[in-house]
Amino acid sequence: MNPKLSNRIAISILYVIASTIVVILAALLGFIIISGLPAINWHFLTSPARAFTAGGGIGIQLFNSFYLLILTMIISFPIALGAGIYLNEYAKQNWVTSLVRTAIEILSSLPSVVVGLFGFLIFVVQFGFGFSILSGAFALTFFNLPLLTRSIEEALAAVPNEQREGGLALGLSKWETVIHIIVPAALPTILTGVILSAGRIFGEAAALIFTAGQSAPALNFTDWNPFNISSPLNPMRPAETLAVHIWKINSEGIMPDAKAISSGASAVLVISVLGFNLLARFVGHRLFKRFTAG
Amino acid sequence: MTKKRWIQCLLLVGLMILGGWAYQTRQVNKSDMTITAVGSTALQPLVEAAGEDYSTHHLGTFINVQGGGSGTGLSQVQEGAVDIGNADVFAEEQKGIRANRLIDHKVAVVGITPIVNRSTGITHLTTAQLIDVFTGKARNWAQVGGKNQKIVILNRAQGSGTRATFERFGLNNHRSLAAQEQDSSGMVRQIVATTPGSISYVGFSYVDKTVQAVSLNGIAPTNQNVANNQWPIWSYEHMYTGKHPQPLAQKFIKYVQSREIQNSLVRRLGYISMADMQVTRDGHGKVHRVEAGHE
Amino acid sequence: MNNKLQKQLLKRSKAAKLERWGKTISFLALMLITVTVFAIIIFVASKGLSTFFSNHVNLIDFLTGKNWNPNVTNSKGQPEVGALPMISGSFVVTILSALLATPFAIGTAIFMNEISPHRGAKILQPVIELLVGIPSVVYGFIGLTVVVPAVRSVFGGSGFGILAGTFVLFVMILPTVTSMSVDALRSVPRYYREAALALGATQWQTIYKVVLRAATPGMLTAIVFGMARAFGEALAVQMVIGNAALLPTSLVSPASTLTSVLTTGIGNTVMGSLQNNALWSLALVLLIMSLIFNLVIRLIGRKGAMSK
């Protein structure tokens, strides 16, 4: 075949494929949002859930989801960053390193229900944290670490070697080079990895059912003392997240408006992830500008 | 650099002071004022609602209710990891549980009924027909008096209390064919409502107009018929504790069993109140009539 | 004076101390992950293996048996724990969804990286990140309300089955495979493309003969990674596959996967009982499978590196 013709055919096929994906997403989003939007109003977003009467909201679950996400990120980001740096900058290419890499990849493909049960036996029962945000955050950390470590390592690997050589030539130690040159250069990519994993955390349900629990006790939003049981900040309280709530309503919900609540909650979940992405994209863009121009 | 250090130190000290202050001014919560109940997801809404009620009447107490399944509830209460294990089966029926180490508290009764998709045209069956359907002897609804449509069986997951009860009292100990399984009643109802020719079984409270409940041998699945055991497919909801339960756990279970909760919450959630039952049944399926006037 | 200089020279400099600190801390972080992974592996293995050692189930029976009924003992007095239906279900769903997702993912990755980087960054990158962000519960819900009825009306049957599972998994692993393929393409040096174009190759020839060849190991990694994710996905598949512990006979009859049986059953069994151990054995199979997936990735990577 004429190379020019095949070139055109191939490229149009690629256009079709790329637009199919956009259409799939548009259809998914459209379905979720259109079926969920009628249920969403201020009352729905702020009031606590009801077990068996209509008119419950998702206020507490929404807060729990965000709080759990932040706590998980606080725990897992430093560990993933450290591990990513070691793997990319220090680790020698030998069988130990390859074993560790394999271990990380295995962790990432473990079904989350196994991670959740492991977290349940270790944190909830063994360490006595009970069904709590803290147990949930640790379980999610297990779940999050491999993906985050991998994406950080890749982000670091994508930084050209000249940057390292430049840092070392200036008399900086390897660590200083990494911290002051390599990590900032990789920051926009790292951020993308963080967003991707944040989305996964935000929607995770199976790992949380047995760790953060499936009940959302009433919170007192005027009490910000983290040692009080009804304070939103208390990390030792049980906390049902939005994703767990959707799962629970779909499986055992007996409130008359269960369907409306679950589609409303799904829409809120997806819209949150959307807003979250936009924000992180904006911040990443600003950071990139600052590091490259300033 | 040094200025930055100073600010860092100051921030750290400030945080520590704030933390200390928060710790000092916290509401003191004695550990014996909190109990945890884990187990059956079917029972969770009732215990949760009762727990909220109890907390508002007894300030400072906190009842933490979690799902996880009957098996989880029983094994955790057996190991002493939680105070109450919620289950919809007798501990004797659950393999791996030493029932003599636990105390059984029955808090409600749930009736279970077969449900079918409305397109099947089935409204009543006999026990023999039901067994034929679930063991695969009947493959088409026409064989048991319905429309010409293939039978699609939907089971609850292996080990589920609802399934155990249904096979024991509905199918007279016949085992259902290996077929689709779902692990929750809500999902079962949704699937039966949308899949032509499907049949499954759920607790009475899950029956709504999207599915057709089936009468058995001419007896309708109603609370009244469960209370006098004419409708045999029912089970207790249990709250198990260890041999030496916490005082609060004991008080709370008493509260759930009290007339007040039995007449309000239990009924509103679609359960049958313990007080209404005219019979009792033990773990081996033996039924005894309750003497009048005796609760 | 001499002494002071000697001291200064012999003492570690501040930078060297910092270097040691940094290295130690990052090493500890890595070790933490590794220890966790091994703890989980040992945990799953000890639970999963006790089916064979303390409950004396025959390994061959477990892998080839067709009946999954841990509550029931068969004629030989052994519990019926044949995992073949789940193992084959998992494999079929995984392979089919990977087959379906691969052309889409690689096509999109090429589009994003080679053909229209601008539109790729502006439209497709956010689209893919959003697809990752949609939780599996929501995918399952959509699968149940849209995919299953659609399959039912086109192919008949109940709609639940491998085909519905494949469609849901296809959309779920698409973003993972795509974004990893993009990374693989991005790591192909720019001068490869320049060299090919300078030789007079068309854009497609450049992509097909040079860029794709150079990125093959990375792409294969992406696909196997997607397969690993499909293999381990639980909630969404469980909602649409029907969970019938039967050997899959057709694409539209109900089947089950390792994860779906594990998720449905684990709450109903008691820690330490045979029923529970049998479920952990399924988890062990999952673990071993992801180990094998990794070995495959490695082999492919090594071959790719050698032929370069």
From TrEMBL, chain A:
Compartment(s) where it occurs, according to its Swiss-Prot or TrEMBL record: Cell membrane
Principal location class: membrane
Protein family per UniProt: Belongs to the binding-protein-dependent transport system permease family. CysTW subfamily.
Gene designation per UniProt: pstA
Domain of life where this protein originates: Bacteria
Matches recorded under PROSITE patterns: ABC_TM1
Listed Pfam families: BPD_transp_1
Gene3D superfamilies: MetI-like
Regions that span the bilayer: 12-45, 65-87, 99-123, 178-202, 260-280
Topology in membrane: Multi-pass membrane protein
Name assigned to this protein: Phosphate transport system permease protein PstA
Domain ABC transmembrane type-1: 62-280
InterPro entries according to UniProt: MetI-like, MetI-like_sf, Phosphate_PstA
Keyword list, A-Z: Cell membrane, Membrane, Transmembrane, Transmembrane helix, Transport
Automatic annotation (TrEMBL), chain B:
Function: Part of the ABC transporter complex PstSACB involved in phosphate import.
Stored InterPro entries: PBP_domain (IPR024370), Phos-bd (IPR011862), Phosphate_ABC_transporter (IPR050811)
The protein's assembly and partners: The complex is composed of two ATP-binding proteins (PstB), two transmembrane proteins (PstC and PstA) and a solute-binding protein (PstS).
UniProt subcellular location: Cell membrane
Domain of life assignment: Bacteria
Protein known as: Phosphate-binding protein
Topology within the bilayer: Lipid-anchor
Predominant cellular place of this UniProt entry's protein: membrane
Matching SUPFAM superfamilies: Periplasmic binding protein-like II
Family classification: Belongs to the PstS family.
Pfam families: PBP_like_2 (PF12849)
TrEMBL record, chain C:
SUPFAM superfamilies listed in its UniProt record: MetI-like
Subcellular location: Cell membrane
Keywords: Cell membrane, Membrane, Phosphate transport, Transmembrane, Transmembrane helix, Transport
Provenance organism: Secundilactobacillus angelensis
Gene field: pstC
Keyword DNA-binding: no
Record-stated family: Belongs to the binding-protein-dependent transport system permease family. CysTW subfamily.
Keyword Cell membrane (UniProt): yes
Any matching Pfam family: BPD_transp_1
Residues that span the membrane, as ranges: 21-45, 86-111, 123-148, 154-177, 219-241, 278-300
Membrane-topology annotation of the record: Multi-pass membrane protein
Protein name per UniProt: Phosphate transport system permease protein
NCBIfam families linked: phosphate_pstC (TIGR02138)
Described function: Part of the binding-protein-dependent transport system for phosphate; probably responsible for the translocation of the substrate across the membrane.
InterPro entries: MetI-like, MetI-like_sf, Phosphate_PstC, Phosphate_Transport_Permease
Domain ABC transmembrane type-1: 87-297
